[in-house]
Structure prediction request, 190 residues.
Amino acid sequence: MHGKREDVLLHACCAPCATHVIDVLSRTYAVSVLFYNPNIQPEEEYSRRIRSMKKLCDLTKTELFVLQDDLTLWDSHMHGLEAEPEGGRRCGLCFEIRLRRTAEFAVVRGFEIFSTTLTVSPHKSTQLIQAIGKRQAFSSGLHFIADDFKQQDGFRKSCLLSREYGLYRQSYCGCRFSLRQKDNGTEKRS
Prediction:
């Protein structure tokens, strides 16, 4: 390697979660961020989150890629799962969609390694996310960094860093179903 760090593509669900993960990974890797989250609704929420992600990447001097898909594609995958509770089958499928697209993007852009910020949240199944990431890596010929980024106080550190950077911090996972559960008082915070 002669001192050159390996490139890693980091799927970021949001800027607050990405703070800690960028900090950790950049100690070993040259990190680039992919913001791909077709689940985030409504449009004003998506705009807030992408502005916050751009701000974080500017502050940390991290390359940012943004992919947008037609929301109707994401909706078609969620058809029949609208009533699933937060953390249920709908979330697993949503993770699958985002990590599959991240792996595809990594291959096209020449990355050999990818990871995700999704495991920093104490409200998401790390084991499920790790399994999906490893499966996508295997089918794409990539390596997936399957770290549990909430370990060693990672979630708390992400909260502190997001405050320090003045980043927008959302109050729900992102999809309209989790927003509806939040409004009804039944959703876990992401």
